[in-house]
Amino acid sequence: MKNFFEIFSPKSFIVLKEGYKSSYFMPDLIAGITVGVVALPLAMAFAIASGVGPEKGLYTAIVAGILISLLGGSRFQIGGPTGAFVVIIYDIVMRHGYEGLAIATLMAGMLLIVMGLLRFGAIIKYIPYPVITGFTSGIALIIFTSQVNDFLGLNIQNLPSDFLLKWESYFKYIDHINLYNLLLALISIAIILTIKRYVPKIPGPIIAVIFGAVTVSIFNIPVDTIESRFGDIPRTLPSPSLPIFDLTLIKSLIPDALTIALLAAIESLLSAVVADGMTGRSHKSDTELIAQGAANIGSIFFGGIPATGAIARTATNIKSGAKTPLAGIIHGIVIALFMFLFAEWIVKVPMAVMAAILIIIAWNMSEVHHFKHILRGPRSDAMVLLTTFILTVLVDLTVAVQVGVVLASLLFIKRVIEVTQVQNSRFKLSGFESQTEERLDDPDMLTKKTIPEDTEIYEIDGPFFFGVADSLKRVMETLGYTPKVFILRMRKVPVIDASGMHALEEFYLRCKKQNTRFILSGVNPNLESMLKKFGFYAMIGEENVFDHIDKAIRASEEEISKKED
Q: Which of 38, 41, 370, 526 has the lowest tally of Cβ within 10 angstroms?
């Protein structure tokens, strides 16, 4: 039995325990510097798109980035602000200001820690792909829409938060395009795409940022910059502080905190899975959730915003040769050094360049290929995808995530019901188009056995969850007569829940009332343990539970013989 620390020990501790090799340091250093350079403009861009100052993105990348690498369950995870949070952060800031965002993020951090301690990591990884694609694509469209103003230089001061109203404003002010702004944005996109194609090891966004800052400074181009929009960027982290807590505000922020926690959990674990696929190693999902929680709390202590694992930056870290979590820690330190040494130059970056970076990020997030692929798949998956996408864009991300998960859960229930059959196994395997060779060769097929008269044998094939319970209830109604013995085969039932157990109890009581002996067959040790735990074993009696159909049939013969006598 593993103890607590063995289960939740961070990968950084495991690396130290195994022995940090000197040969790891240079690859970690190079990877950390590379990812730090990549993360610098992204951190500012995500913060700006979220409706807060660029310095808050830098604080997050530094503090959360270091904590996620130090405490996380992946050797390669790079944490910081990401596009997934842009919509929810912007909405909270518009409604409650930064104070509301800070409280919601602290709550989300605590939720993530609890989720990790309760071992929810494995469950969250199975959030259906249509839900993830739906809200990711929706977020991408919203990010793109939010950057049109800065991309075109329309200079709309009070831009509506509503998606449709934003586009209405853009068309209204379309004749206000700043050509300098548009040209800078287009050149920045060209730089990023060209570098990605021909020199992929060089981070395109940082080159675009340098180009924009130098060009605007030398030629004194009349466009908005970080400095003109937000003022100076501090050279150091602020002193640790906490927001003022208000009970009414806390209650109103619970849905937002749940959304932040869910998004952080999903994206960080997806990123860790991608890292596993690239390296052949495995991450500790529950430890990762705890680290994400601690990182979000730490980020707010230092004036940051929500953070999670970043898939693109994590992949860059691996491709740059990272060996251990030290690379992620170095990445945070590199951003801090940039902020300390180059703050006066960072603020010279044009907003058009930041918009260009975010538009490319939005395109990468959109997953157009996967979106089309799901639409061509089963209707139910397409429905979940479109519902989540439309709600994300037109209503609210919090609502979209909650509705998407509920729809996916209902879809799961539907599919469990479809694959779990309550069937008359005397004549055929009903509910299946054909009998497989494996089933035809089954030595325990009832066609190979002699079944006593006045005996009905039904079989449950699959998990006995609440969706299947109703099928069992209807069995007696469809028989048309009252058998003397009813045998329920459960050899293919791996698990049963409370609703399934309740259905069993009701069915047993109905049989008892009709003077029909109710027998369970094929009860494996695991299922037997569940029956005892629920108290059903004692209710039905040990003499009515058998591990094999032959024993159940013999019991039926004896019962019918007694009743005839």
A: 526
